[in-house]
Design goal:
Layout lengths: L1 H8 L1 H13 L7 H16 L8 H17 L6 H21 L3 H12 L3 H12 L2
Helix pairs in contact: 2-4, 3-5, 4-5, 5-7, 6-7
């Protein structure tokens, strides 16, 4: 109800903030990125009718974050990386649900051209989710 209306009213600004946080690694514990993934999940759940038009931007940002986490050679511990990948995957699943399967279709191309098992695993979870 009310939260959804507030989110929709500020969606453009929220989107810029979310994209900014998804792009930047914030140290070994990744607290900001973990928090922003939770926030994004909440936003998708409450403003789902507005998500299909935001799909290209959000999909690109989430895939880039998945790739960055996978290729990160820094000090981020494995459990934190796994939690980040899980959070991003959950966001992709939610986006897929509110876009009537568009995410699955778009991810088919990425899946077929990607050779990294960890990235493919995230995509496979989205594709298998019904």
């Amino acid at each position: 109800g009310r939260l959804g209306i507030l989110i929709v009213r500020h969606l453009k600004r929220l989107e810029r903030v979310i994209l900014g946080y998804l792009e930047v690694c914030d140290g070994p514990e990744e607290e900001a990125r973990l928090g922003i993934l939770e926030t994004l999940q909440c936003i998708i759940e409450h403003a789902w009718p507005r998500m299909p038009c935001r799909l290209p931007v959000l999909l690109k940002a989430l895939l880039k974050m998945i790739w960055d986490v996978h290729t990160d050679q820094g000090s981020t511990p494995e459990p934190v990386k796994a939690t980040l990948l899980q959070g991003a995957t959950e966001c992709l699943i939610l986006l897929d649900r509110c876009s009537e399967g568009q995410v699955k279709v778009l991810l088919e191309v990425v899946y077929s051209s990607c050779e990294e098992n960890r990235v493919r695993e995230c995509i496979r979870k989205v594709q298998e989710n019904t």
